[in-house]
Give the backbone structure.
Amino acid sequence: MTSQDILSVRNLHTTFTAKRAGRKYKIRAVSDVSFSVRRGEVLGIVGESGSGKTTVGRTIIGLERAEAGDVQLNGKDILSNKNRAARELSLKVRMVFQDPYASLNPRRTVADSVAETGDIHGIFSSRSERERRVAEALTQVGLDPSFGARFPHELSGGQRQRVGIARAILPAPDLIIADEPVSALDVSIQAQVLNLMADLKEQLGLTMMFISHDLGVVAQISDRVAVMYLGNLVEVSDARSLFDDPLHPYTRLLIASVPRIDPALRISGGIEKGEPPSRFAEVRGCPFSDRCPIAADRCLSERPELRQKTAERAVACHFA
Ligand SMILES: Nc1ncnc2c1ncn2[C@@H]1O[C@H](COP(=O)(O)OP(=O)(O)O)[C@@H](O)[C@H]1O
Ligand SMILES: [Mg+2]
């Protein structure tokens, strides 16, 4: 952890237990994941559905139990002593979810939803301060403060996600974890919400983990990108180098499948050509070996560690 890191995640493991055909199985949703988020940056987390992105976010905020690992926020362990730190943590790390409709209470006004966590933790000294802070948050996300009196069903999808972002920024958090925040929106609205998040990052100096299965979306907002595959981190890089010169074969496959002109090209790209292996199988070697175009014998038996290649780049591949 360096002084510029807000969040440091070290050797994080999260497992679930599932039953199939009467037998219990361990699902390794997050496997030995290490990364950090620096003050003022957007770290994109990208990977196919099921790669463990959501579980990483949920484990950091304590919604899932870590099997092993260390998570520090501003140098303080936030995995243990959860109860003591809960109040602080729910103000310091805020989530933005994919579906703002599901995360907003339909019977509460927008103002009440935006103020909710602040109310629970008693951060407003008076009614008028609460009103002022809610109006400020709504203005920051491009909504007129009069929206505070409305209910979620009166808003469009884009407006609802703006409310979701207002809820997240109101307590001036240290870190925002946005999990697929634009995936439920129409493409034209996606761009607006992404622009808003980029503007807020600049204006408010926000630090963000931006989780998405869509590399095209991640590319638009991230300073650095972490690529996940089957619970493992396979590459971490500044965004520019990642796109110009991807080091991991899986990253190359992902980039090849980002649509350029016609979304239909996505199918010819590559990512749908192979299916991720079953999570029920224990992976001994490289988790990507059975889809990898350059896999060798070594890749089947020896799991590659995430190695630092340069100050800004790390990759988990025997041949990168
Ligand atoms: N509550 C749960 N119980 C059992 N398995 C789960 C649970 N949540 C997630 N998983 C499994 O963990 C893996 C990672 O899921 P997730 O973190 O949601 O991936 P992503 O967000 O990248 O799509 C998947 O195989 C998923 O099925
Ligand atoms: Mg997810």
In short: The domain at 5-238 is CATH 3.40.50.300 (Rossmann fold). The longest strand covers residues 5-20. Residues 261-275 have pLDDT under 50 and may be disordered.
